[in-house]
Structure formats: C-alpha cells, structure tokens
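This part of the workshop introduces the protein records we will be handling. Getting from the letters to the tokens is the skill we practise here. The record below serves as our worked example for the rest of this section.

…
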Amino acid sequence: MRWMALLLWIALCLAVGFLSGRWTAAEIPTWYRTLRRPAIAPPNWVFAPVWTALYLLMAVAAWRVWLATPSSARAWALALFLAQLALNFAWSLLFFRFHAIGAALVEVLCLWAAIAATAFAFARVSPAAAWLLAPYLAWVAFAAFLNAAFWRLN
C-alpha cells in the first residue's frame, strides 16, 4: 500500500506537469517565440527535465508526509501541498494560455509563498520532506525573477 500511495502522488504531480506542459509546448513556437527574451532565460529544452525532476521530488515529499501518523499537522501540510500544486498549474494557464505575463508574475509570487508555507508545514511532520521541496522553492524563485524580466521587456 505504501508504494501504491507513492505511485499515486507521482501520478498526480506528473499529471499537473503534463497538462500545463501541453499548453506551454503549444505556445513555444508561436506566441512565446515572439517575446523579447531576457539574457537570463535558459534554453527552452532545460525546462522539461527540470520540471520533471521537481515534480518527482514534490511527489516523494508529499508521500513522506502522507506516511506520517495522521494528525492535524499532516492534514494541514497536505492541504497546503494541494493548494500550491493548484497554483503551479494556474501559472502555466496564465502565462502561456492567456498570455497574461503581469498576472502570472503576481501568481508566481503567490506560488512561491505557498511553497514556502508548505515546506514549513512539511517540516513539522517530516523534515526530509521539507528539504525535498528546497529545489522547487529555489527554481520558482528563479522563475519569478524570469517572469518579471519577461514582463519588463514585453
């Protein structure tokens, strides 16, 4: 049962990545290509492997918290995790689907705060799970900086 739960967390996180990745991929050769790119923007091929690794780390982190003894701290941590996952999904929708770069910037800042809150909540239940979110928190900080640069240039 423990491993089945891990597979479900992986499936959930990768499904979010897959769906948002579809919108992203559709816009890369069209709208996104027309944008002025900041010098700090990595090559497009970097994003898929980075996000895949981050979604896997997120899934393992959530699974470690899920394995803990049921408690209000565990329930709150997992609720925050699902909320930040929804915000993660919404960013791609705003930026790539709706081309709302400014709204996406506000949203990614909310996402970063939600990830930080999730990491703090995870730390109360499983410190290792909180550390698994550290690369995600760092990448979203970079993504926010990159989003701001795109907004400024476009």
Q: What stands out?
A: Residues 23 and 60 are 25 Å apart (CA to CA).
